[in-house]
Amino acid sequence: MSAKHESGRFVIAQFSDLHCGDPRYDERLLHLVIDRVNDLSPDLVVVPGDLTVSGYRDEYEIAKAQLDRLACNEVVVIPGNHDSRNVGYIHFIELFGDRWTARDLHFATSAPELGCEHVRVVSVDSSKPDLNDGELGRHRYEWLTDQLEDVPGFKIVAIHHHLVGIPGTGRERNIVLDAGDVLEILDRYKVDLVLAGHRHVPYAWQVNDTLIVTSGTACTWRTRGDTPPSYNIVTILPDEIEVETFGFDGEGSRRVRRFPRRHRCGEPL
Ligand SMILES: [Fe+2]
Ligand SMILES: [Fe+2]
Questions:
Q1: For residues 219 and 211, is the Cβ–Cβ distance under 8 A?
Q2: Minimal CA–CA distance to 21: which of 56, 59, 48, 70?
Q3: Residue 168 — left, alpha, or beta (φ > 0 → left; ψ -120 to 50 → alpha)?
Q4: ∠ CA 220-223-224, rounded to 5°
Q5: pLDDT (tens digit, 9 = 90+) per residue, 88-137?
Q6: 25 alpha carbon, closest ligand
Q7: Are 116 and 107 in contact (CB under 8 A)?
Q8: Alpha helices, DSSP H only, in 134-258?
Q9: Which ligand is nearest to the CA of 216?
Q10: Ligand 1 center to residue 60 CA distance, Å?
């Protein structure tokens, strides 16, 4: 695992698809993920959706109790399609807050070479009540572009559904219905990093200069083929973004991929 947060790097823990309440939910794994994340002391934690299996209050309360164990001061949680079943988005708002958010993080301790003193994190809700499909919708584009324009630093967008197909997940379904238009916005506004979930298989695609990182299911055995439950540690380095995926198979696997960064934070867009 990466070293604890240190100057010169910005560390993000990403885990999703907890599906609390599901018969295949494994609380032992969620404990382990949160313990490891706390031990790592990341700068940011992103949980991109599917906290529950059916959006019920008791499922939400399990997720809330677990996520409250996170020690990180900056935790971004968004709903997934399962969380919007049975009008579950009401519980989401009560327990986790707004479904669409934008926040600015400032890290005075970052090394100058990282150039990442300013990070904007925008979270969007791609779920629709009682549907598995993902969509942002044209009526939301103006809000999204408002959050992304004139931002000098590193830009992160969190979304539950996938914008590009994920290998090893079988027949394509539920991809963001307006993925083409959303991708064009992300590219036009020079978003550096997208963090997603939903398909239960971890992967990373670089589309033009935007890196899209998908997390697997962190703590369920709703897995596909041989892909185990897993979580990601995404580290922003001066010239690269490193994506580490830790899998719960056997002794525990670790896969590392590195991608070039779009641009140095702070440079003019
Ligand atoms: Fe899921
Ligand atoms: Fe999902």
A1: no
A2: 59
A3: left
A4: 175
A5: 999 999 999 999 999 999 875 556 666 667 899 999 999 999 999 999 99
A6: 1
A7: yes
A8: 141-148, 179-188
A9: 1
A10: 14
DSSP structure class, residue 41 = -
Domains of the chain, each with CATH number or no CATH: 10-260 (3.60.21.10)
Return the axis-axis angle of helices 179-188 and 141-148, rounded to nearest 10°: 20
* Residues whose Cβ atom is located within 5 A of ion ligand 2: 50, 80-81, 198
Task: Give residue 128's identity as a one-letter amino acid code.
Answer: K
Closest to 219 measured CA to CA, from 24, 13, 1: 24
> Closest Cα partner for 83 from 61, 105, 113?
61
Which ligand minimizes its atom distance to the CA of 162?
2
21: its two tokens: 């309440």
**218-263 pLDDT, tens per residue?**
999 999 999 999 999 999 998 899 999 999 998 899 999 999 997 6
Per-residue CA distances from 130 to 56, 80, 86, 268 (Å): 12, 11, 7, 42
Show Cβ contacts of residue 63 under 8 Å, excluding neighbours closer than 6 positions.
Answer: 18, 20, 51, 52
C-alpha of residue 153 to centroid of ligand 2, in Å? 29
CA distance 23 to 21: 6
Give the integer Cα–Cα distance in Å for 211 and 261: 8
Residue among 228, 230, 236 nearest 211 (CA): 236
**Torsions phi, psi for 57 (to 5 deg):** -60, -45
Q: Which of 72, 35, 9 is closest to 218 using CA atoms? A: 35
